[in-house]
Records
---
Amino acid sequence: MLVGVHTITSLMRLEDHVMLVEGDPRLQILYTQVPDRLGDGVGKCLAELEVRTLPWQEAVQGSFDLTVSASLHRMGEVPAKKRFSAPHGAGFTKLWPAWAWPGDADARPVYGLDRESLLDAVGGPIFDALVVPHPDHITTLARQCPESVPYALVTGDPCLDRLLASASRREHYRTGLGVRPAQVLVAVASTWGRHSLIATQRDVLLRLTAELPANHRVIATLHPAVWAEHGTRQVRNWMREVRAVGVDLIDVGEDWRGLVAAADLLVADHGSLAAYAAATRVPVLFSPFGGTDVDSSSVVAELAAVSPRLVADVPLLTQLQAAVHAQPAQWRVARRRVAAMRGQSAEVLRQCLYRLLELPEPEEATAWPQVPVPRLVDGD
């Protein structure tokens, strides 16, 4: 079995899937780094995991019973009996970026459920299993790439299920992050790109520490693509000013779910963390994201429609209180849209993987482990 790793983000998601089968002595699991412009740091993470790796040049000349990936491009180049793909976000929330789409910008499809991503050069489906967290995605797939519908499977969302499995240890995560019992933890999450919070609203980190009462703690997490695109040293230097005034930063490659499990509030943009936070009843204050590639029918767009938006001329404490008032509406949207089959993804995904491997599934029950406490960036 070959695990194709494009980016640190996809590696984080793949680990949720690989752990379902990696204890099976019938399997030899190999990893390969798939060429990707945002793949910086993947090699280091694979080394830290102490897994067996295979150079990409050898992977495309090999032969595998199953490939597993959480991104789509180039996986069709690897010879394999079966191919499995999972999303690396909260479902499929973005359109093809305008700069990359060859046709009419107004006709861009939802990325990841489109013919361009899922079919090979002769129009055949690349993947034998395309797992999605919610039936809504099957509807989109049927409209955009009906050839792949027979291979799609609704499995729920392992990322959400692991987050929910960790909720009972909230105090463990707060203690691990150094949050005192009386403190209010405000998490700040930014995706990547020119419309992200860190690109357009970086001053909010300074405002939070300046405006919020002393019993508030601020911890930020940046999408791994921010670190990959700009470099770890550059990002740490960009964040030096906000860290100097008391904002802590989750280190690159660390699992952000422990931060969400510990948080009282979240300030976020159009990235997936907002959807996962809302699904676990954490109030979300959204930064504006007009002009982005967010699908207007996605869960992120629907969440933003029932949520307050970050503005410059209103005290942040007032805006965070508005997010608290909006939390019930946010949770209703997230409950309905983020994932079906809550708590069942481990069972369904393991069944799928063993079916593709053509092996009997182990009799032992499977369940998701709780997520680790993320490490913070040390002082420079």
---
Amino acid sequence: MAYVIAAPCVGNKDSSCTLVCPTEAIVGLPSDPQLYIDPDLCIQCGLCVSVCPVAAIYPEEDLPQPWLDYVRLNRDYFRKLH
């Protein structure tokens, strides 16, 4: 399962995670409310987790209950692009 970017990223969008992702799976346009992880490109290396200053990135299976909708939000973001 892929990593997911959740609520703490909304409005913050610190891009440190994009710089360490070896597959360039993390993207977001300036107009987007947050960054997103492409579940098809994520290799679950966890590098993004260690650099996120707002603790917004979780493995899908460890996502806190109130943020479960972010699994869908991340997937839907990339479905729109393809």
---
Amino acid sequence: MKRRLLIRTILFSSSVLLVTVTSCTSINNQSSSYQPPEIKIGVLFPLTGDAASYGEKGKKAIELAVEEINAKEVKKATAIFEDSRAEPKTGVTATQKLIDVDKVPVIVGDIVSAVTLAIAPIAEKNQVVVLAPTSSAPAITNAGEYIYRIWPSDLVEGTKIAERAAQKGFKNVAILHLNNDYGLAIANIFQKTFEQKGGKVVLKEGYLDKATDFRPVLSKIANLKPDVIYVAGYFADTARILKQSRELAIQSQFLGTTAIEDDEFIKLAGNAAEGMIYPLATGFDPTVIKNSKVDNFVNSFEKKYKYKPGWVEGHSYDAFMMAYQAANSSDAQVTGTSIKKYFDTMKSYEGVTGKIVFDKNGDVVKPVVFKTIQKSKFVAIGN
């Protein structure tokens, strides 16, 4: 009898032990396979093609943002990158993939205005938010209710640099512009403002983004001898224009766009860049604005990538951080509609590019600082 009781006790104990071990194993397996909540954010940048240098810079900033978010937040951020090649058609295909396959509620992009305008109807139709870091074309203002940007409209930059030219006493100007949405829009704004101030446009001519020889049009400009030449383009084409103008001994004052503030511009243009004046309408300038948020970003970026970030990096970083904050603000399912509601009711966002406040059209207003190139350095000058 005692022996039977002993056997039953052993069997019962073994069963309890087996259940306990099995339960623990099950819990451990669940723990090891547990994945924290994820917030997927689409990123549409030109990673190849003519504007690839801008896209790669923005990509680096976003990768830094993802690292910082995932180091401290429960909901992890995932950036899904797609290459627009700065081409509207390619951008549309990539956007459709981000929406249909990746199911993202928000897309950070594009850097290029033409692509942002092309993808806007698709995002609007699917109720997916687009947050453009650097797109500046005026048409984006009315591109849709789901379209936002943290870069001022060209209306601001084009107006301010034209006013500056008039204030400096320049009476006539030759305008060269990139023949795309960006170049044509900002050139038109410059022309309108300059003429309203009493100035005269003696020549206005567009050029293709792949153009390399500007000597024919520069020869015409040399004969006209304008007080000032306004180049509405990106850094590479502007650098070629400057070098070739110096070869032709053109002495006119040159004005440019924010897009030239890139170290590659200095390398390409060399001494020909000296004295060019341009507006910085972005709000990101660590040489002028210094605070802990800007300092931390600059230091972290430089530590990771071994160079100081510029306006593309700053705006890409802010745009991604804002997209994540909007998505992370709700405990419910994250949708484009919920992100739109967050942006529409957001009072302001303090980023590395300054204070960001959206108006009713999803636009922002930022101060303009005038700069020039002195001894191969970008230097702020008095307003």
---
Amino acid sequence: MKETYMHSSTMKRIISFDLDGTLVTTEYVDAVWLERIPEIYAETHALSFEEARNIVEREYLKIGPEALEWYNIHYWLEKFDLDIAWNDVLESCIDRVATYPEVPEVLEALGTRHTLIIISNAAREFIQKEMEVLDIGKHFSAIFSSVSDFGKTKKEKSVYEMVCERMGIEKSAMIHVGDNYLFDYVAPREARIEAYYLDRDGTHADEDHVVRNLKDFEKRITGL
């Protein structure tokens, strides 16, 4: 039997957003991990940028996004023997932080009717930098880093369950949206939480509970 979720468009809900790739473009995190870290590695070890980037990316892939270390700037600076403060690395790319175009309007609209939160795989250090730059933090009642707050990635359904416990809500009161199929769609649904997969590229456009952008998501959950 097909799983369905029943809710009223007028009922106050907890609307949970992923951060990078959902609210905020990936340009900032890509600049940190794929540009700045390789640049520093190249300078430290007297290599070309391309040589350094190849080495750095190989090491990233050995860990993979399901491991906590993947998100840990302290781990990578130590592993690569880079003598630079983590804050300086993050600050050096801060001009690359930006939201997707529809985000301010969607947050303003949904925030008048629902309680908004963020559940991100990003480490707290990254989240804080992004919130310092962007004028969106005011919309959120709570911001959770799965790796910093729970020591888990969002592949674990328990992350969503623990967020519900901390918020003091039933799982049926939450709706989550994000751009990672496993972390933002499969895991919350395993926890019996309504979830939408944000597919900005349109590769899953015909599937149920798939949205192309956050304006589409807003229309889906408000019944417009």
